[in-house]
C-alpha cells in the first residue's frame, strides 16, 4: 500500500535520498521494459514462418490481388 509523504517535512538529506531511490527504481523499470521488449521481439521472430524451410506452392494468384481479380473477370467475360 502506498504511503503519502509530507515532502515539506523532509530534510534536504532525506529529499536527496528519496530522489536517488526513485531514480534507482526508474532505472530498474526501464531495464525491465527493455528486457521485455527484447523477449517480445524474440518471440515474434520465432513465430514467423520460415520462407526458406517451407516450399511455396503456386496455386495461382493471391486471393484479392489484382491478378486474381483479372483472372475472375476473364472467367466471367471471356474474350471471343
What does this structure look like?
The protein has 80 residues and is an all-alpha fold. 59% of the residues lie in helices and 0% in strands. The chain has helices at residues 12-47, 66-76. It is rod-shaped. The N and C termini lie far apart (81 Å).
Number of strands: 0
Work out the oligomeric state of the chains in this entry.
single chain
Q: How far is the first residue's CA from the last residue's CA? A: 81 Å
Q: Count of helices?
A: 2
User: Mean of the pLDDT scores?
Assistant: 83
Q: Please provide the ordered H/E string of secondary-structure elements.
A: HH
Assign an overall shape.
rod-shaped
The low-confidence parts are none
Evaluate the radius of gyration: 30 Å
Largest sheet: none
% residues in beta strands: under 5%
Characteristic key phrases:
80 residues, mainly alpha, 2 helices, 59% helix
Question: How is the topology of this model organized?
Answer:
Layout: H1 12-47, H2 66-76
Summary, kept brief:
With 80 residues, this protein is an all-alpha fold. The protein has a domain at 11-50. The protein contains two helices and no strands.
Amino acid at each position: 500500500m502506498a504511503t503519502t509523504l509530507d515532502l515539506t517535512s523532509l530534510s534536504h538529506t532525506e529529499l536527496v535520498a528519496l530522489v536517488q531511490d526513485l531514480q534507482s527504481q526508474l532505472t530498474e523499470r526501464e531495464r525491465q521494459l527493455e528486457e521485455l521488449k527484447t523477449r517480445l521481439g524474440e518471440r515474434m521472430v520465432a513465430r514467423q514462418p520460415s520462407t526458406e524451410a517451407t516450399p511455396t506452392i503456386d496455386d495461382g494468384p493471391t486471393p484479392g490481388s489484382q491478378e486474381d481479380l483479372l483472372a475472375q473477370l476473364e472467367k466471367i467475360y471471356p474474350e471471343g
